[in-house]
Amino acid sequence: MIAAVVRDFGHWFGAVRTLRGITLDINRNEILGVIGPAGSGKSTFLGALNRMNDLVRGSRIEGLIEIDGKNIYGPDANVAELRRKLGMVFATPIALPRSVFENVAFGIRLKGRPSKAGLGDLVRDCLEKAGLWGEVKERLDTSALNLSGGQQQRLCIARVLALKPEFILLDEPSSGLDPISTRKIEDSLRRLKSEYTIVLVTNNTKQAARVADRTAFFLAGELIEIGETERIFTAPADPRTDGYLRGRFG
Amino acid sequence: MRVGPKLEQNAVRAVLLLFTAITVFILLFIVVFILRKGLPVVDLSFLSQNPVDMGRAGGIFSTIVGTLVLTAVAVVIAAPFGIGTAIFLTEYTWENRVTRIIRFGADCLAGIPSIIFGLFGFILFVTKLRFGWSILSGGLTLAFMILPTIIRTSEEAIRAVPASYRQVSFSLGSTRWQMVTRVVLPAAVPGIVTGVILSVGRSIGETAAVIFTAGSALHIPTSVFSSSRTMAVHFYILAREGISMSNAYGTAAVLVISILIINVITYYLMERFIRKYS
What we know:
The complex is a heterodimer of chains A (250) and B (278).
Chain A: E1 2-13, E2 16-27, E3 31-35, H1 42-49, E4 59-67, E5 70-71, H2 79-85, E6 86-89, H3 100-109, H4 116-129, H5 133-136, H6 149-161, E7 167-171, H7 179-192, E8 197-201, H8 205-211, E9 214-219, E10 222-228, H9 229-234, H10 239-245
Parallel strand pairs in A: 3-8, 3-9, 6-7, 7-8
Antiparallel strand pairs in A: 1-2, 1-4, 4-5, 9-10
Helix pairs in contact in A: 3-4, 3-6, 4-6, 6-7
Chain B: H1 5-38, H2 44-48, E1 51-52, E2 57-58, H3 61-91, H4 97-110, H5 114-128, H6 135-159, H7 163-171, H8 176-205, H9 208-211, H10 231-240, H11 245-277
Helix pairs in contact in B: 1-11, 3-6, 3-8, 4-6, 5-6, 6-8, 7-8, 8-11, 10-11
C-alpha cells in the first residue's frame, strides 16, 4: 500500500535549486533509506515531506507530494496536523529544557488537556517503544538535558511517537552517536516498522543496508535510483550509485 | 619590546584587577556615603509617617507609595508592549527594512534624555489629554521612557533561545503562538526579567521625567488621576530647596535600599525559575 506519492517534485532555497524532478512512492510500513553525499538534497527531501522547509526564508517548491491522497501543499493543507502525522527526528538530539516526562508529553499537550493517568500511560508506552523506559523510569522528573546523547536521541523518538504519527522521518539520527547507541536506535526502528512508515536519511550507507527495506540514492538534487535495498547494494542499475557505494565520491 | 608570556599575563591580570577594584570601590563609596548620611534619620516612623511641613518633619510614607504606584503603572503598561514588539520582531517577521527601522528607532529613543520625555509627557498627557499632574501621566511617560530598554533586552533574550528549540516545537505540530509561549518565552524569561528590572530601577530613580508629569503633591494618591511625589523627586526638592538635607539623605538611603531589595528578590525568583526549566 502506498503511503506517499511524490511526483516531479522540485525545490529551491532562494535562487539555489536543491531538488529536481523527484518522483517516487513511499510504501506503508516500510523503512525507506535515503542515501547520497552531502549536499545531494536528502535532508531537503525529508523537510519537504513535513513542510519543515517552509520555515527557511526563500523556500519554494514545484510538483506534487500527496500523503493519504491529499496534496500537502494544497491551499487547504493543515501544516501543524501534517507535521504531527509525519514526526521528525533531527540529526543532533534536541531535548527541550524540561523534564524527561514533559519532553515526551510536549506534543500531546499541544492538543487539549490529557488526563493525568492517560498521559502517564502514554508517556511510558512511548518510552518503552523507543527502548528508553528502563534507563529513565527512575528519573522522569529530572531535566532531559542530563541524559546522554544516545538517550536524548531515543527520547526524541519517544517524543515523536507520542504524536501517534503515521510516518517517522529521521535525518541522520545517529550521525553524532557511538556504535552502541546507534545499534539501539536501529533496533528501535526495526521494532517500529510494523506500526509506522519510516524514512531514514543517512550518511552511513551501511546503516541503510542494515535496516532499510528499500533504498533511494540522491545525487546533486536528483533521484538517481530507488529499489530494494539488497538490489541497490548488490546490483545498482546506475554506475553513479555503484561509484558512491564503492566510495569513489561523496 | 617583548616581555615574557608569564610577565605579560601577570601585568594584564594586575591592570584588569585594578580597574575592577576601582569600579567596585566607587560603587561601595557612594552606597556607604549615602547610607551613613541617611540611615540615622531612618526609623519606623520615618517610613510610616507622611511628610510634615514640606518634608522638614515627619516621614516619607506618601512618597514611597507614590514611587511604587508610579513604577507599577509604568511597568504594567510598558512590559506587554515591549515584550510584544520583541516577539513580533523575532518570531513573526523576517528581517527587513521595517524591522531595522523599528530597531533603530528604539535605539534612538533609548538615548533621549529623560527630561525630554518629561517635557513630552507634560505637553501630551498633562495638558493635551488633560490627565493633569497625575500617576497616569507620570506612568505613561515613564512607560515611553523604558519601552526601548524592554524591547531591546527582550529581543536579545528571545534571539538567544536556540533555533533548534523552535524547529523541534514546529516539528511536533505546534502553532507559532504555541512555540512562542511554550518554548521560546520560558527559555527567554531570565533575560526578559533582567530587562524589566533594569527598567524598574530606572523608573524608581527617575526625577526629570516624573516631576513634570506626576507633579509633587505630598499626599497619598487615591486614584490614577492623583498627583504624587516619588522618593527621587522628594529627595531632589528637599535638597534643591534646602528644606532638610538630613531628610533628603534619609530618603536617598531608603531609595538605595529599595532598589537593592528588588534586585535580591528578583534574582531569587529567577534562580528558582531557571531551576524549574532546565
